[in-house]
């Protein structure tokens, strides 16, 4: 495993060809790390931009605009003369021939292949729920969520003017991981703070935000004390947290959980992810989520020329799987560049080891939880954790312009309680809205305490991501 892979035994004078599939954190860091290496690099992505995914929920809830958290991949890599960018999709991998097939019909030959295509939503066999409960992985997802949340208030205002009543504004978030907690807190912020003076006939503060989680606590990947603080903070914001609550059905305008039906003007999915289908094309061993099992050189078995990174990789360290979040993905990308450089110099490849600096999640305005592992160990919550979260995320944003614009947007929002990205695009349709109107005022749901109950669920229920 420490020897240079066979693809390097090429005629002298030809530089090794590196193909990176995916322009996320892992792929982009790998490409930047190879900027000065004697290789010819091609990066392939279906989209022309890199997304700073930890802030994607702020686009979904109208804090930031898409351009403030995204940057064209070409712009990021424009100073790398050894790099070309192709906006295309890999539709096949011929491992013996060392080639990838693209959707455009062309094929790329590689000496090294880096797969970093991330993950997508998993509805655990209920793909028919996807149109009713969108998840959050792309800019398109964020814009759709923004459309639905903002449209719900607009339709309620219009209904109130025309008929003097409106269906209950219940926002249901399924999954109590970091994404679900951040979405629920941000929706509550919108309703309680940022829209309180915008409407004349409805009171957005009377809307309900319900967070449904199948496991015993939210933020299950965090220490129990931080989970408890997160749940308490969500409660302070008015979010109704229901743990031990199994979602058994999702329909247009409703969710069934713990044996009860809840009216939901907007339903959002944050309960599970699965790896990109690209991993299956390798013919390598996969875990239950479709992640490729890799060794400490980030290779699939018997393929030293193929590296798998980020959410697509199942890498274990000290008996635990490294989480599929931004921090390990960036470190994997950096390490790939070091291993390829070691091959070119004839040195053994260094093993990859993840350096955990901690985890953070925001819970509404000016509040967060943080598990700090470096430069010291600490558990923070509230305003200090939020300041830490803000500083770290601005630091890692790509591009000086992005840092300035994001900081300015946050400061403006903080002091003025306004949101400059509250744009509704697309149609004016919400799943189930017409059904709720047809039911009339008498057919609406009762008090939340009558519609959802905590109760034990099977251990096999998927939890939040």
Give the helices and strands, then pairings.
Elements: E1 17-21, H1 25-33, E2 40-45, E3 49-51, H2 56-60, E4 70-72, H3 73-76, E5 83-87, E6 90-94, E7 99-102, E8 107-109, E9 112-115, E10 119-121, H4 139-163, E11 170-174, H5 178-194, E12 208-212, H6 224-236, E13 239-242, E14 247-251, E15 254-257, E16 260-263, E17 266-269, E18 273-275, E19 292-293, E20 306-308, E21 313-314, E22 316-317, E23 320-321, H7 326-344, E24 358-362, E25 368-372, E26 378-382, H8 383-396, H9 400-416, H10 433-439
Parallel strand pairs: 1-2, 1-9, 2-5, 9-20, 11-12, 11-17, 12-13, 19-21
Antiparallel strand pairs: 3-4, 6-7, 7-8, 10-18, 14-15, 15-16, 22-23, 24-25, 25-26
Helix pairs in contact: 1-7
Provide a short characterization of the protein structure.
With 465 residues, this protein is of the alpha/beta class. The protein has helices spanning 25-33, 56-60, 73-76, 139-163, 178-194, 224-236, 326-344, 383-396, 400-416, 433-439, and strands at 17-21, 40-45, 49-51, 70-72, 83-87, 90-94, 99-102, 107-109, 112-115, 119-121, 170-174, 208-212, 239-242, 247-251, 254-257, 260-263, 266-269, 273-275, 292-293, 306-308, 313-314, 316-317, 320-321, 358-362, 368-372, 378-382.
